[in-house]
Description:
20 strands, 38% helix, binds nicotinamide-adenine-dinucleotide, alpha/beta, 6-stranded mixed beta sheet
Amino acid sequence: xxxxxxxxxxxxxxxxxxxxxxxxxxxxxxxxxxxxxxxxxxxxxxxxxxxxxxxxxxxxxxxxxxxxxxxxxxxxxxxxxxxxxxxxxxxxxxxxxxxxxxxxxxxxxxxxxxxxxxxxxxxxxxxxxxxxxxxxxxxxxxxxxxxxxxxxxxxxxxxxxxxxxxxxxxxxxxxxxxxxxxxxxxxxxxxxxxxxxxxxxxxxxxxxxxxxxxxxxxxxxxxxxxxxxxxxxxxxxxxxxxxxxxxxxxxxxxxxxxxxxxxxxxxxxxxxxxxxxxxxxxxxxxxxxxxxxxxxxxxxxxxxxxxxxxxxxxxxxxxxxxxxxxxxxxxxxxxxxxxxxxxxxxxxxxxxxxxxxxxxxxxxxxxxxxxxxxxxxxxxxxxxxxxxxxxxxxxxxxxxxxxxxxxxxxxxxxxxxxxxxxxxxxxxxxxxxxxxxxxxxxxxxxxxxxxxxxxxxxxxxxxxxxxxxxxxxxxxxx
Length: 478
Ligand code: NAD
């Protein structure tokens, strides 16, 4: 089946089409989309420039109404989108349901925040005049997103960018673009022609043109730290404002007062293995008191042994394949390296999918590693969790902070106050106490990383204001 890009202009069709294959069965072509080059970005930016003034002339509350109405339109096609998302990304159906729900949750929070844009903030009003701060749109915003949450990650960027009065050119991941091409067409249909364009392209050329384009004033990117660095370099030549949501290597620290029960093990497994471990803020390293390493490893193993690894559309599947060959190869390599370093690897669960046809891999836990091992220091972005012991809380904090990343982290304890105090010592954009992962995200709170995990925040009021330029108006007399 052919999918069209979301554009208000005709595309050059001489370049052919690109196939999207199912990660659970690579014989299956899920769909094709038109191949494009950087010239399509120029057309999209032109269309955006023409459409943006009429959109920004509306109040933010009027714009919010249109976004909320789109969430209702999407409800009608949810089950079609869920199936498409599973087939192109590889996740299981309930994860696809969860992902699609982000759109509506984001619009609901944004509708509550719209008044911040309609009413200027009074900074000074003291009898000598007033200083007010208004939130103006940038104009054209460029958004670039990855394959792991290929529909939700665009939502948490595109919706606030539009609410702020911007036009958007969105470049979705070339290996999982189809759900977005269908879903964001529904949003584009409610907007002025050309206000939202959705493109995708193999290789970096399309995204790179967007970052370079002189009429794109803001870039919001989610993806790997390596690509984030390239984008920051390119954007800096025009002093372009960027938000970068990059890789993570989240630590979870189980304190010595924590109850080691089945509930804990299930929560840790969800935090580490949801979406086959391909979540930027999945638990990627687990620290437990030295005397509890075996007990925690056994508890996690027994939960993982109930897992069936197969096609996400099959009843009874608990975990899908990795999204692509390179991602599976990377995890296999890191686990082999861990074994060579003396780590004890426990493979768990039952394989239902064919690893010759899909990118399936049994989940594993690894003990006996040093904190410097590659599986501990690198972002595995897959279903293998190292578990390490510590002797004192200071040591646990030092081990957890011994990373270039700083996206999220968590503390697990029966004493929430102690948990919150310990949380402040971890270097991260968000630290959860007694939870970790996608279920813990709340669109009212800002999200983003420190260190090499990113620059800036999305979600919440800071995430909305990231798509605005403050404009100060002063009427104070001399
Ligand atoms: P990636 O960096 O390879 O690609 C992301 C997007 O950037 C793709 O759409 C790609 O086409 C585009 N791109 C590639 N090179 C480019 C360039 N030079 N200029 C402009 N655009 C370019 O990432 P991925 O493999 O798709 O996703 C996995 C990574 O994303 C992991 O590291 C993960 O941690 C990270 N991630 C982070 C978050 C977060 O919120 N911090 C969320 C999800 C994923």
